[in-house]
Amino acid sequence: DDELYRNCTWLKRNNQADLLSLDFTVTGLTNLEVVELVPGGAAIAVTDDNKAEYLDLLLKFHMFGSIASPLNAFLKGFYDIVPLFLISVFDYQEFDLLLSGMPDIDTNDWRVYSEIRWIKLETPSVAETAVVDWFWAVVADFSPEERARLLQFATGTSRVPVQGFKALTSTDGRVRRFTIQVVNRGPPPTGLMPKGHTCFNRIDLPLYANKAELAKYLTLVINMEITGFWLE
């Protein structure tokens, strides 16, 4: 939902949230009923002090709460066939690989049909081009499972379309190429973590000092359980 993304991003980045006259409610997606994000949410105004909590609850509603009824029905039927205790040992990435199998990812095709965004629109610096070259070198050194996890981290899926990376689509079904966005480095460790934007098939790579540093943080994020919502 591009409009939801733009509105949430604007709210996060700007002050004086109280001028928007928002409260801790949201309009339902089906029968347009007003849903309180917290008990008594209609009486709680969104301010600069609580807007982070509001955004977190709003996104959780759109991702989970708004589809709770059909999701619960699906899970009930699914667990009747595959008991929960049999799959609870897997994280979501492992379960995806278990269902889909290990994909054969062509790194050359991946690189050819990728886009690069630099910190500025002008000609990139030597440091920026080095980060991109290191990234592809690390990807080439990865095992098939690590490549699948990386693709999943950046796009939300570990599978490549039959037509290859040129046919990679975003969550809205439109063709959207895998994109590397080079960004300025921040204070470690969080400021050096790559960030995945699965709605846009994009990964943000800070300006690493060397290939080893990039490999360290890239390997870390693809092997950890990522939770929460990041708005950039």
Describe this structure as you would to a colleague:
- The active site is at residue 199.
- Residues 1-232 form the HECT domain.
- 42% of the residues lie in helices and 10% in strands.
- It has 232 residues and is an alpha/beta fold.
- The strands form 2 sheets. A 4-stranded mixed β-sheet has the order 3-4-6-5. The protein has a two-stranded antiparallel ribbon with strand order 1-2.
- A hairpin with a 6-residue loop joins strand 1 and strand 2.
- It is globular.
Spell out the key features of this protein.
single chain, HECT_dom, Hect_E3_ubiquitin_ligase, 42% helix, 232 residues, globular, Hect, E3 ligase catalytic fold, transferase, alpha/beta, ubiquitin protein ligase activity, 6 strands
Topology of this structure?
Layout: H1 2-13, E1 25-27, E2 34-36, H2 51-63, H3 68-81, H4 84-87, H5 92-100, H6 107-112, E3 114-117, H7 126-141, H8 144-155, E4 178-183, E5 195-197, E6 202-206, H9 211-222
Parallel strand pairs: 3-4, 4-6
Antiparallel strand pairs: 1-2, 5-6
Low-confidence sequence ranges = 226-232
Number of strands: 6
**Major sheet description:** 4 strands, mixed
> Which strand order do you get reading across the main beta sheet?
3-4-6-5
Tell me the CATH superfamily of the largest domain: Hect, E3 ligase catalytic domain
As for the number of domains, it is 2
Q: Kindly report the CATH topology of the largest domain.
A: Hect, E3 ligase catalytic fold
Shape descriptor? globular
Q: Supply Rg.
A: 20 Å
Order of helices and strands, N to C?
Answer: HEEHHHHHEHHEEEH
Catalytic activity: S-ubiquitinyl-[E2 ubiquitin-conjugating enzyme]-L-cysteine + [acceptor protein]-L-lysine = [E2 ubiquitin-conjugating enzyme]-L-cysteine + N(6)-ubiquitinyl-[acceptor protein]-L-lysine
Pathway: Protein modification; protein ubiquitination
Keywords: Transferase, Ubl conjugation pathway
EC number: 2.3.2.26
